[in-house]
Amino acid sequence: MALDLTEPPLAPVTVGYDVERIRRDFPILQRRVGDWPLVYLDSANTSQKPVQVVKALEEHYLEHNANVARAMHTLGAEATEAFEGGRTKVADFIGAAGPQEIVFTKNATEALNLVAHSLGGRLSAGDEIVISVLEHHSNIVPWQLLAQRTGAVLRWFDITPDGRLDLEAAAAHHLINERTRIVSVAWVSNVLGTVNPISEIAAMAHRVGAHVVVDGSQGVPQLPTDVAALGADLMAFTGHKMLGPTGIGVLWGRYELLDTLPPFLGGGEMIEVVRLSGSTFAPPPRRFEAGTPPIAQAVGLGAAIDYLDGVGMANVAAHEQRITAYALSRLSAIDGVGILGPTKAVDRGGAISFTLATADGLEVHPHDVMQLLDSHGIAVRGGHHCARPLHDRLGIGASSRASGYLYTTLAEIDALADGLSYVRDFFGGKR
């Protein structure tokens, strides 16, 4: 379907919450997959983009395209202003002390690797890094690599039977102790939907002098965010899960901490003076933004934040909770569906992972679930969702995952429930 960019985009709602009104800003949601209307339930993977964001990208490239902080001409000044304007919008959106605390990266994965590299220079053999069993691979592998480089020890929060971090067991086993230097956990699980008690974990870590890193990739798009209230020292998240373009991530850090960290990459713009005998480095955030940054992507992320602010993040969170509660109720009522993680929409995000079995107990592989649902226009994800250690902990190889967002309707949840009943009966021989 061609997107007509000659028409002015619809304005986001500012009063109340009208999901059908919001959906009109997302032309892709009107398309069909074969004979079926698209039911997009893969927003934890990547969100769809409103026309406002696409228009902002188009306008930037067609009218203001230039490199930033280098070109001393009108286009260069306009590009720099737009790019830094995106930084200011991000800072305001998450309650940062100012734009100087916002580092742009290409995604959350790069942001977490930046932290592991730059903060990791302070670790020695025998120091401890604490993560959790429910982390995305992007919040596991960088810490494994750091432990290998430094001789540090990697330790894990386990989970309770209902899929929440087991803080009691962690306290009993002194998981966070005087040897702990870094604690890095997800705010919201991309598999179980669990909302982790970051402020409580941060208090535990700070009592022993450890730094707290948060993977906010699922939390920032869904929940009102105040980094000061969270108690974190550093937080990573990504633009493409919050209506923004791909190719841009964010690292937020307390400025007094960022100012003590060494650079991650070397090159243009992250320096003060370069001589053959050595170089000195710029203050944050430029110290961590070597080379040409994601300029248009920052503009697009700023437009996404404008959209989310227009809807209101409290409204987004309330809608997310409503559709999640409805989905948990509908899916739990289907014979053969097993919900992973919390079964009530309390301290829970919108990602719902599940298994499916036929009436005679045959487990339907998530890839088959995904493919058959797709034949009915329903987009979900199947696999281990970049969280294989969690699936190993749960004793399963993979799962299916449905995830809505601010544009998801109750009717789409009904379509998912009906589709899962069809898949179960199809593989159970009832065709």
Structure description:
By secondary structure, the chain is α/β, with parallel strands linked by helices. The chain folds into two domains: 19-48 and 312-427, Alpha-Beta Complex (Aspartate Aminotransferase, domain 1), CATH 3.90.1150; 56-309, 3-Layer(aba) Sandwich (Aspartate Aminotransferase, domain 2). It is built from 15 helices and 17 strands. The strands form five sheets. The protein has a seven-stranded mixed sheet with strand order 4-10-9-8-7-5-6, with helices on both faces. It has a four-stranded antiparallel sheet with strand order 13-14-17-16, with helices on one face. Helix 12 runs parallel beside helix 15. The longest helix is centred in the N-terminal third of the chain and has 21 residues, at 74-94.
